[in-house]
Structures are given as structure tokens and as C-alpha cells.
Design brief:
By secondary structure, the chain is mostly helical. The radius of gyration is 42 Å and the shape is elongated. The N and C termini lie far apart (88 Å). It folds into 4 domains: 255 residues, no CATH class; 152 residues, no CATH class; 38 residues, no CATH class; 140 residues, no CATH class. The protein has 26 helices and 6 strands. The strands form 2 sheets. Strands 1-4-3-2 form a 4-stranded antiparallel sheet, with no helix packed on it. A two-stranded antiparallel ribbon has the order 5-6.
Length: 611
């Protein structure tokens, strides 16, 4: 039986089958899905002779009450005393005692239908068309505010359950259960009870159609799923589609849906947008016309779309973990090249050839549910997602999709597999991938994309410049010696003295790259050798306050808050500005409120100070 249930769910979930005349024109309630040979022969005889089978001939010994609510068959133990009566028989006996008047009116509605069966109320509209849905709706409206208090322990299992398919005991059990559900409880119940309650909510019975109705559907779905996980799974598969239809039917905000819809369609939209960009770059246009709304996807978004729409998923392969940038670049460039190739040599664009053209199919709202419209739906257009739109014209719904395909593309999968395999071979990757047959022009396109990638990497490596800051001190010293050797006696005499350079640097803030720097550095080193505790006086035109702050940061001493009567923040800004041309960055930064010397530039500062 689990296999049969699975087959039935697949049949009922098929969109083309749901929209066929068989499922759109009839409502199946108590007709068995699988019948025995005897049942089939009996049904054929009934259709041929136009009379009911012997098993359904009317009884002639009904009491007046039983003509409306016939007694249900009970075991032979019914002849025993009431105290010793089995639970099923006792339940049926209690159900027929003190029957609320509303149940009589419920049965009168069924009996008033023009094609109601003459033999029994349980045969009323068993295989009806729209009339069966209308009867259910009228009965649901009649019982909308009804409450009962009956202890029910029986079972009820029915495809497309309705009130007309239930015995009196089951009816009383259902309405008693519904009373508790509306009070905030969720007692265990047959799965058919849950479907019947959902039919009521879809028809707007017991709720306010719109956002309140959607909230009630979602709340009931979540609560019922917790009572029975197995039943909740089957129940949830139907509810997902009906809740989605409910949002469309009442034109609610799609953001109210808790479950994402149209995942692959949205990925196809990303491919179409990337395709449009590639065509525009090549001076071409889409054969289906421009997209209504366009966003340029990044390479990361394009690769994700290729991965989700392809039967071979490159993002899950080993190469992507080790070389993600290379795989992304080759895959995206291959896609763009194929787009241009197909636009020039095919009647359809590349993405359309993979997933088909846009569709507009007839759509049945709340298929596989008992649903009735008291009034025809007004004409409307509902955009559920960027890739899915619904239209209603004269009461007929249509679903407009971005493409007709509903699965991953094997053709795109072959291309993505070839990209992965050929890139591994060119990179001499340790884990090669076995080639699959692919068109020669596709191989050329992939190889060209790989060649361009490797050439770009080689050029980037050639242009890469590495600066070794540890060699700066030697370069400065060599430059100073060379400069001094080239000076004439007159030029040496014209140079300012050490004191003049210091005073000039302090007053004017000369750049630390001035030519006299070499002499200053040598002078500071000589002073350090004579007096290790003395600070250099003119290192790179640093003022006394700046040298005090740097010395404190190097030695780990407390940083003065007001060095030489100046604000500490201004002194630090001046230090960073003067040393920027030397190290190419700020040498002091803040950790909270405290200045800290950047550890990477510690040796450079020591060299500058001669420490």
C-alpha cells in the first residue's frame, strides 16, 4: 500500500494530468481508486441496466429517524447489555441518541439535490461534478459555527472526504474534533478529518478569506504535522501547493509564503540575464526579445546558476575546492562564448535551447481539493515570482512560466563536465577526470577560455613587483655615499651645518626624503655610539616631541600625554605623515584610546631613529 499511495501522489501532483478533463470536470469522493473484479462487473451492470446493485437496494424497515440517519451495521454483540457492548457498537448507539437538529438540516441539503440517489443519503452526488462541490460548500456554510461534544474513537479514511461520505458517528466525531481545534487544541484524528478541515478553510468557512485565512492554513498545517509525522508529511505535500494557490487566488503578498518557490526558474532567469549581457556586448539581441527587467549577474551568481541548472554540478567537484577562481572563470567564459555561437548559428538562443521557451498553460486552482467558488473570480494578473505569473480571464486561470523545462539539463551537464575535465588536464591536477564525448566546437571554446586564463595568469606573475623593506637602509646608505662622492668642494661648503638642518627641518617640516638625510643618519648613529641613552636630535627632521613619543613606543615606556607641551594626537599625526614616504603606511595606530606602534614597521622605525 505505501507504493500505491506514492503512485497516487505522483499522479495527482502531475500538472498536465491535473489540468486534463478527467480531473477538472469531476470530483471523486468515495469512488475507490483500485477496484476488485466483482466491483467492476457490478458497476458495468449498473451502468448498462440503469439500476443500482443489489447491495445498495433500499431497506423497507426504516424507522422515521433511520430514514434520515440509517443505523450503521454493528457486530452481533449489539444484542448484549449496554454495559457489555463493544466500544464501536456503544459509540454508534450514543451517536444516534439526542441527535442535534443541525444534522437533520445537513442531510436535508443533500436530499434536496436534483441528482441525489433515491436509495440512501450516502449515495448523494457520489460522483458529481460541480454540483458536488456546491453541495459541500452549502453544507459547510450551514455547519460553519456548529459545535459538538462527542467522544469518537473510530476511523475515517476517504479520498476527497466530504460530509456526504460520512456516517453520523463520523460526522459527530469530526465536528467534535473541529470544535477542539478551534479552541486551540490539536487532538489526534484521522488524516481525512484534516483534509476536510482544510477544504473548509480554502472555501473561506470558519475564517476570513485573505491574510487571516492564509495564517489559519499555515497554523493548522504546522500543528497537525506535530501530532503525526508520517501523516503530516503526506498532508504537507498537498498543503504546499494549496497554500501557494491561496496566495495567488487572493492576490496576497508573496513574501507571506514561508517556503521558497520557483528555485530553478529563478536560476534560469540568471542565465537569461547573463546571456542578454553577452549578446549586447557582441552587438546581438535575444531572439525572444529583451527581458522585461534586467540585472547584470556577477560571475559568482552565474556559476551558481550553471551549477543548479546542470546535471553535472561543478561546484561540488574537487577542482572547485582547490581552484575556485580558475573554474569560475573558464565556466563563465565558456557559457558566454556558447551564447554568441548559438545566436549566430542557430534559430534559438543557447538558454532557450536548453530549457525551452516561455509557457502559458491552463491552471486549476486548488487541484485535488474540494473547492467551490460562490462567485466567479475577477480578472487579474498576479506576479508570484519574477519567473512565474498567473492570469485570470473570465474565470479561467493560466500559469505563465519563464521556461517549459522542469529539471536539470543533461546537455549543459556535459559541457560543465568537459570544462572541469579539460581544466584539470591543463593544470596538471593530481585528480584527473575522465573525458566524455563533446562536440568539437565546444572543445575549441573551452580550450580557448583556458588559454586566455593561463596567459592572463602568466602576465600577472610577470608584472608582479615585490618590495623588500629590509633593504631600504642599505639603499639609503649607498645613495648617501654616492651623493657625497659627487659633490665638489664648493658644494660641500654651501651645504648647511647639522644644527642649521635641524632648525630648518623643525620649522618648515621638510620632507624626510631631502638630500641631507644621509648626513643626519650618520650623525645620529655617531651620537648613539658616544651616548647610548641619548636620543638622536635630527632623525628625518623629527622634532623632539616626536622622537620622545617614538622612543616611548619602542621601549614600552608610558606614552606622554603632553610631550613638549603639544597634544599627543597632533604629534602622532605628524609622525605618521613624515614617515609615510619611507614605509608607505602609518606607523602608529590606536587600540582603543592608546597609541601603538605597528609591529610590522618596528625595525624600520628603529633604523630611522638609529636605535
Amino acid at each position: 500500500m505505501p507504493d500505491i499511495d506514492k503512485i497516487l501522489q505522483e499522479l495527482l501532483g502531475d500538472r498536465r494530468l491535473r489540468e486534463s478533463a478527467t480531473f477538472t470536470s469531476r470530483t471523486y469522493s468515495d469512488q475507490p481508486i483500485i477496484q476488485t473484479g466483482k466491483q467492476l462487473r457490478e458497476r458495468m451492470d449498473r451502468n448498462r441496466e440503469g439500476r443500482p446493485p443489489l447491495s445498495s437496494l433500499p431497506r423497507t424497515d426504516y424507522t422515521p429517524d433511520e430514514r434520515t440517519f440509517p443505523r450503521e451495521p454493528v457486530p452481533r454483540q449489539q444484542q448484549m447489555s449496554f454495559d457489555r457492548m463493544p466500544s464501536v457498537a456503544r459509540e454508534q448507539q450514543l451517536a444516534h441518541e439526542n441527535i442535534p437538529e443541525r444534522y437533520y438540516r445537513l442531510r436535508e441539503l443533500a436530499g434536496a439535490q436534483p441528482n441525489a440517489a433515491a436509495s440512501s443519503w450516502r449515495g448523494a452526488l457520489a460522483y458529481g461534478t460541480r454540483s458536488a462541490n456546491r453541495l459541500f460548500y452549502e453544507q459547510a456554510r450551514l455547519m460553519e459555527d456548529f459545535e459538538d461534544d462527542f467522544e469518537f474513537h473510530g476511523t475515517y479514511s476517504q479520498y476527497f472526504p466530504t460530509y456526504s461520505s460520512m456516517t453520523l458517528t463520523q460526522l459527530r466525531g469530526y465536528f467534535s474534533w473541529r470544535t477542539r481545534v478551534r479552541a486551540g487544541e490539536m487532538p489526534e484524528a484521522p488524516l481525512s478529518f484534516a483534509f476536510l478541515h482544510v477544504y473548509e478553510l480554502l472555501c473561506g468557512v470558519g475564517t476570513v478569506p485573505g491574510e487571516q485565512g492564509l495564517a489559519d492554513l499555515m497554523t493548522f498545517r504546522d500543528a497537525f504535522g506535530k501530532t503525526d509525522a508520517a501523516a503530516g508529511s503526506t498532508f504537507g505535500s498537498y498543503l504546499r501547493r494549496w497554500i501557494r494557490d491561496y496566495v495567488v487566488y487572493h492576490n496576497l503578498d508573496p513574501a507571506l509564503l514561508t517556503e521558497r518557490s520557483g528555485g530553478q526558474q529563478e536560476q534560469v532567469l540568471t542565465l537569461l540575464q547573463a546571456e542578454e549581457d553577452a549578446l549586447r556586448k557582441g552587438g546581438l539581441e535575444r531572439k525572444q526579445g529583451a527581458l522585461p527587467a534586467h540585472n547584470t549577474p556577477t560571475d559568482e551568481a552565474l556559476l551558481t546558476a550553471l551549477n543548479e541548472c546542470s546535471s553535472y554540478q561543478p561546484c561540488g567537484a574537487r577542482l572547485f575546492k582547490d581552484h575556485p577562481d580558475e573554474l569560475r572563470t573558464v565556466a563563465c567564459e565558456t557559457f558566454r562564448a556558447l551564447v554568441t555561437h548559438c545566436s549566430r548559428r542557430r534559430k534559438t538562443d543557447f538558454v532557450e535551447g536548453l530549457y525551452g521557451s516561455p509557457t502559458a498553460d491552463v491552471y486549476t486552482m486548488f487541484s485535488s481539493a474540494v473547492f467551490y467558488e460562490s462567485e466567479p473570480h475577477a480578472d487579474c494578473v498576479v506576479h508570484l515570482t519574477p519567473t512565474e505569473t498567473f492570469t485570470c480571464r473570465n474565470g479561467r486561470w493560466r500559469q505563465h512560466l519563464l521556461c517549459s523545462a522542469s529539471g536539470r539539463s543533461s546537455e549543459l551537464g556535459t559541457i560543465m563536465h568537459a570544462v572541469d575535465a579539460r581544466l584539470r588536464a591543463r593544470l596538471n591536477y593530481a585528480y584527473p577526470l575522465k573525458d566524455r564525448p563533446v562536440a568539437a566546437y565546444v572543445e575549441k571554446i573551452i580550450d580557448k577560455a583556458i588559454d586566455e586564463l593561463l596567459a592572463a595568469q602568466a602576465e600577472a606573475e610577470r608584472r608582479r613587483i615585490t618590495i623588500d623593506f629590509s633593504q631600504l637602509a642599505g639603499i639609503r646608505a649607498a645613495a648617501a655615499v654616492t651623493q657625497e662622492a659627487l659633490l665638489t668642494d664648493e658644494e660641500r661648503e654651501a651645504l648647511p651645518t647639522e644644527q642649521e638642518r635641524e632648525d630648518s627641518g623643525s620649522a618648515s617640516g621638510d620632507s624626510p626624503l631631502d638630500p641631507p638625510r644621509a648626513e643626519s643618519v650618520r650623525s645620529e648613529r655617531d651620537q648613539r655610539e658616544e651616548s647610548p641613552d641619548a636620543l638622536p636630535e635630527s632623525a628625518f627632521a623629527l622634532t623632539t616631541a616626536e622622537r620622545v613619543v617614538l622612543h616611548a613606543l619602542i621601549t614600552g615606556a608610558a606614552t606622554p600625554t603632553n610631550p613638549e607641551g603639544q597634544m599627543l594626537s597632533l604629534v602622532i599625526d605628524s609622525i605618521n605623515e613624515k614617515l609615510f614616504d619611507v614605509v608607505g603606511d602609518a606607523v602608529i595606530e590606536y587600540e582603543g584610546d592608546d597609541p601603538v606602534l605597528v609591529e610590522d614597521y618596528l625595525e624600520d622605525v628603529r633604523e630611522i631613529l638609529g636605535a
